[in-house]
Design a protein that fits this description.
With 712 residues, the chain is of the alpha+beta class. Strands 4-3-2-1-7-6-5-8 form an 8-stranded mixed β-sheet. It has an 8-stranded mixed β-sheet with strand order 18-17-16-15-21-20-19-24. A hairpin with a 4-residue loop joins strand 30 and strand 31. The longest helix has 28 residues. It starts with a strand and ends with a helix.
Length: 712
C-alpha cells in the first residue's frame, strides 16, 4: 500500500462554487491546493471525525466532517472507492461509509444542527447540507426564517437566500423561530465588532483602494476605516502578505492578497496596497498578558512592539493571520534594488521577481506564480533600442506584457529566469538574446536581432525555396552609381529641363542672346560626353543577372516549388481548422513552427527535388527555343530608334517636355504681361535683327521636318 494517494482533477466546495485543484492524502493529513489561487488547505487526520463518500453522476465525492463542526467536500473521484476506504482505514483508523442522499424531492422535512452544518432531512436521509460559515445573515418573521449567503463572484450561479417555514408549537417557553436563528448565527460568518482591537494604525496611505485609512486589527478580522468607506476583512480571506522595498530606497510597499476580494461599488479589489515611509516609526503595546501571548501566539509576539510602522504592522499581521510574509528574493537589478521599473498597459509601476513568482505593483497589482507560467519572452520595445519588453504567457493563454524595461536589466533577468528553469520562448541561447539589445546606434556593430530572425527563418525551412530567391529585385536601384538605369535617366531629365528653362528666359545661349546656336552647341557637348562614357552592361549579361531576366520573362517556365511549400499546400486547410479565427499571418507563422518540428521530411524533399529537375529541363528547352534573348534584342532596337523626350524638348521647335508644361505656364504668362507694360517701340536695327533670326529659325524648322520625313 502506498504511503499517499494523489488526485489531480479534484474540485473543492468554496462558498457555493466548485474550485478545481489537486488533493493529496498522506498518513497524517489531507492537503488540497487550488489551481486558481495556489492556496493550500491542510486537514490534519487527528481533526477528522467522520469521512464518508457520496455518489454523484459519473463520479463520487468525499465528505469530511471535522471535530470542530466544520465540513469539507471534495468531488471528482473516479474508479474504485475501496482503494480510498482501505487507505483511510489503515492511516486514519476510520470506517468510510456511504452517506446516502434523499431522492424524494420533497420540500417538507426536519432540520438538524450538527456543529457548523445545517442538515435538511427527508425520511431520515439527508436531502441537502448547508455549511453555516457560508451564511452572511439570518432574518426572522412570524413563522419564517430567511437565510442569506455570501456571494461568490466566481460562481456562474450563486445561491443568495433560502427561506424556511417553521410551524408554531404549543410550547410557549421556546420559540422555534428564535431558536432556529440562534443556532444559525452561532456558526454564521458574520463579522461583528466586539471588544477592543489588538492594534490600531492611523492614517495609513493606501494605493488600492485609494485613500487614507485607519487599520484596526482584531482577533478574527481586520478593519479598514476611512472617511467614506469601511471594510471588514476576515483573516481567512487573506492569501498572502508581501513586504517590498520601493526603488527609491526610502519607501516600502505592504501588499495583502485577498480571496474573496473586497468590494467598493462594482469594483473588486483582490489586493490591498499600502505605502510607508521608512523613517516613520511607532510604538504599540498589545492588550495581552505574557501568559496569553505564550499560549495563543507561542511567544511570536511581545507585549511591546516598536520600530518602523511597516515592520510592526507586518509582524502583527503575520502572527494574527498565520500567513507567511513574503519579501524580495535573491534578484538584484542593475540599480541595486529588487524592483524593475516598467509599464503595464498605460500605467508605470515596478516588477519584482520573487522566489516563487512575479508581482507587479501597482496599477493593477498582479501576482503570477511560476506554476501558472507557460513561457516567457524577451521582445524589442516599439522602435526603441534603449528598452525591451518582457512577456509572460500563462497556461490559460493569457499574456501579460511589461514594457519599457531598461536594457541594462536584461542580463540579470535572463540569469534569474534560467535559474528558475522557466521556459523561454524562441530562445537560441543566452548570447543571441543578450546581443539583441546591444547599442544599435553604433553602425559598426552587426544587428544580432536581424541575424536571429534569419536563423529562425532558416530553421523553419524558408530557405528551401532555392537560390533563385536569394537575389533581391531592388539591388539595381542606386542613384549614386553611374551604371544604374535610374541614375542615367534621372540625370538626363534634370539637364534637359534646366536647359529648357534657361533658354526660355533668354540666358541659355552661349552668346547670351538665347539663339538656337547656343542650344546646338550644348547638344553637341552632350553627344561627346555619351561617346566618352562606356556602354552599360545589359541585365541579360552575366550569370547573376540571368536569373532576374528569367524571373521577369512571362514566357519562361515556373520556378521549382520548395519542400516547405509542398507540405504547406497539403496541410493548409488542416492548420486553419485547428486554429479558427486566426489571421493569415499567424497561420503562416504557425505553419513555420510545425514545419520546424516535423522530423520526417523525406516525402516533401523528394517532391521538391523532382520539381527542380523538371524546372531545369524546361528551362533548357526554353533557351534552346530562343526564349529570353530575342526579347531583349528587340527592346534594344526600340530604344535606339525611338527619340528621347529630352532631345525633342531641346530641339529648336520650341516645344517643352511634358513634365514642365503645367509648372511653367503661369510664370511665363506673368512675365509676358509685365514685359508688355514696360515695352517701348523697337528701333529699326532691332526689327531687322529679329526678322533675321525668325528667318533662320524657320529654315531650321524646315530642315527638321525634311529629316523626319526622310526617316519615316
Amino acid at each position: 500500500m502506498a504511503d499517499f494517494l494523489e488526485y489531480s482533477s479534484i474540485s473543492s466546495e468554496v462558498r457555493g462554487a466548485m474550485c478545481p485543484g489537486k488533493l493529496k492524502m498522506t498518513d497524517t493529513s489531507m492537503v488540497f491546493k487550488s489551481d486558481k489561487t495556489g492556496k493550500v488547505e491542510q486537514i490534519n487526520s487527528s481533526d477528522i471525525e467522520l469521512l464518508n463518500y457520496q455518489r454523484f453522476v459519473g463520479s463520487f465525492g468525499l465528505r469530511v466532517f471535522l471535530k470542530n463542526g466544520s465540513l469539507h467536500r471534495f468531488l471528482g473521484f473516479t474508479g474504485d472507492e475501496t482503494k480510498i476506504a482501505e487507505f483511510v482505514k489503515k492511516n486514519y483508523k476510520l470506517d468510510m461509509l456511504e452517506k446516502e442522499l434523499s431522492m424524494r424531492g420533497w420540500n417538507w422535512g426536519s432540520v438538524q444542527f450538527k456543529g457548523a452544518v445545517l442538515s435538511f432531512d427527508v425520511e431520515s436521509k439527508t436531502s441537502f447540507e448547508i455549511p453555516l460559515n457560508h451564511v452572511s445573515q439570518c432574518n426572522v418573521g412570524k413563522n419564517e426564517v430567511t437565510v442569506e449567503f455570501h456571494r461568490n463572484d466566481e460562481a456562474p450561479v450563486s445561491l443568495m437566500e433560502m427561506r424556511f417555514h417553521i410551524p408554531t408549537t404549543e410550547s410557549v417557553d421556546i420559540d422555534p423561530v428564535e431558536a432556529f436563528q440562534e443556532n444559525v448565527m452561532k456558526q454564521a460568518s458574520v463579522i461583528s465588532v466586539s471588544g477592543d482591537a489588538i492594534a490600531i494604525f492611523r492614517e495609513i496611505h493606501c494605493l488600492t483602494p485609494r485613500g487614507r485609512y485607519d487599520i484596526k486589527v482584531f482577533q478574527s478580522f481586520f478593519q479598514l476605516h476611512g472617511k467614506t468607506y469601511d471594510f471588514k476583512i476576515p483573516t481567512s480571506s487573506v492569501l498572502r502578505l508581501f513586504l517590498l522595498p520601493h526603488k527609491d530606497n526610502r519607501q516600502m510597499f505592504f501588499v495583502i492578497s485577498l480571496d474573496p476580494p473586497i468590494k467598493q461599488g462594482q469594483t473588486r479589489y483582490h489586493f490591498l496596497v499600502t505605502l510607508f515611509n521608512m523613517e516613520e516609526e511607532t510604538n504599540i503595546e498589545l492588550p495581552f498578558s505574557e501568559e496569553e501571548l505564550k499560549e495563543k501566539y507561542e511567544d511570536k509576539l511581545t507585549k511591546e512592539l516598536s520600530g518602523p510602522v511597516y515592520e510592526v504592522l507586518g509582524k502583527i499581521m503575520k502572527v494574527i493571520i498565520n500567513r507567511k510574509l513574503t519579501g524580495p528574493g535573491t534578484f538584484i537589478g542593475h540599480t541595486g534594488t529588487p524592483a524593475i521599473g516598467c509599464s503595464f498597459k498605460a500605467a508605470a509601476g515596478y516588477l519584482y521577481p520573487l522566489e516563487r513568482g512575479f508581482i507587479y505593483v501597482h496599477k493593477p497589482p498582479i501576482h503570477i506564480r511560476f506554476e501558472e507560467i507557460a513561457t516567457v519572452n524577451f521582445a524589442r520595445s516599439g522602435g526603441s533600442t534603449r528598452s525591451f519588453d518582457f512577456e509572460i504567457e500563462l497556461k490559460t493563454g493569457t499574456v501579460h506584457t511589461f514594457s519599457s524595461i531598461e536594457k541594462e536589466e536584461y542580463s540579470k533577468m535572463f540569469d534569474f529566469i534560467v535559474s528558475k528553469k522557466l521556459n523561454v520562448k524562441n530562445t537560441g541561447g543566452k548570447a543571441s538574446y543578450k546581443d539583441d539589445f546591444a547599442d544599435s546606434d553604433n553602425e559598426g556593430e552587426p544587428d544580432a536581432y536581424l541575424a536571429r530572425v534569419k536563423a529562425e527563418a532558416k530553421e523553419r525551412g524558408e530557405d528551401d525555396y532555392g537560390s533563385d530567391s536569394e537575389e533581391s529585385t531592388d539591388e539595381d536601384f542606386n542613384p549614386n552609381q553611374q551604371e544604374s538605369d535610374v541614375a542615367e535617366e534621372f540625370d538626363s531629365n534634370v539637364e534637359s529641363s534646366s536647359d529648357d528653362s534657361d533658354d526660355e528666359n533668354g540666358s541659355g545661349g552661349s552668346d547670351g542672346s538665347g539663339s538656337d546656336g547656343g542650344r546646338q552647341k550644348k547638344r553637341d557637348k552632350k553627344k561627346e560626353k555619351k561617346e566618352k562614357t562606356p556602354k552599360k552592361k545589359s541585365k541579360g549579361d552575366g550569370e547573376s543577372k540571368q536569373k532576374k531576366s528569367n524571373s521577369k520573362n512571362a514566357g519562361g517556365p515556373k520556378r521549382p516549388t520548395s519542400a516547405f511549400m509542398f507540405w504547406l499546400n497539403a496541410n493548409r486547410e488542416q492548420i486553419r481548422k485547428d486554429n479558427p479565427g486566426v489571421a493569415i499571418t499567424e497561420i503562416s507563422k504557425k505553419a513555420g513552427e510545425l514545419w520546424k518540428e516535423l522530423k520526417d521530411k523525406k516525402e516533401w524533399e523528394a517532391k521538391a527535388t523532382k520539381s527542380k529537375e523538371e524546372y531545369t529541363e524546361a528551362m533548357a528547352a526554353y533557351k534552346a527555343a530562343g526564349g529570353g534573348g530575342e526579347k531583349e534584342k528587340t527592346e534594344k532596337r526600340k530604344k535606339k530608334t525611338t527619340p528621347r523626350k529630352s532631345d525633342t524638348a531641346m530641339s529648336g521647335s520650341g516645344f517643352k517636355s511634358k513634365e514642365f508644361i503645367e509648372g511653367d505656364d503661369s510664370s511665363s504668362e506673368d512675365d509676358k504681361k509685365k514685359a508688355a507694360k514696360k515695352a517701348k517701340p523697337p528701333k529699326d536695327s532691332e526689327k531687322k535683327k529679329s526678322k533675321k533670326s525668325e528667318s533662320e529659325s524657320g529654315s531650321e524648322e524646315d530642315d527638321d521636318e525634311d529629316m523626319s520625313e526622310g526617316s519615316d
